Amino acid sequence: MNLLLDTHVFIWAITDAPTLTGRARDAIIDGNNVVFVSAATAWEIAIKKSIGKLHMPTDDYFDALARHRFTPLDITAEHALHLASLPLLHKDPFDRILVAQAQVENLTLVTRDSRILTYDVRLIVA
Known about the structure:
Order of helices and strands: EHHEHHEHHEE
Number of helices: 6
CATH topology: Rossmann fold
Helix content: 40-55%
Radius of gyration: 14 Å
CATH architecture: 3-Layer(aba) Sandwich
Distance between the termini: 16 Å
Number of strands: 5
Low-confidence stretches: none
Shape: globular
CATH class: Alpha Beta
Largest sheet: 5 strands, parallel
Structural class: alpha/beta
Strand content: 15-25%
Number of domains: 1
């Protein structure tokens, strides 16, 4: 299975937070799965750090990707243009691009965001 982690799930996964569900944790650590982390996650982390809402050192981002064998996923024009076909069920641009990436790339999105759950995308609730 190919997974795409929402930002909060990425942070929970790299910090081994007990808030992750067993199903999500098992899917993330399953060596048969490829786990993607969107460039949108790096962007969201940088913004939250700059406004004081997150205290994770941004230097740790690339180390965490390598340490956990997560695969970076760039945002492409195809992902961005796919946003036009998504219903406006959720206004958060980071979450919307993750939904678009999951749909375009045929990925299972791992999230706990209830607003994302309303989209037509394969999900694992974190």
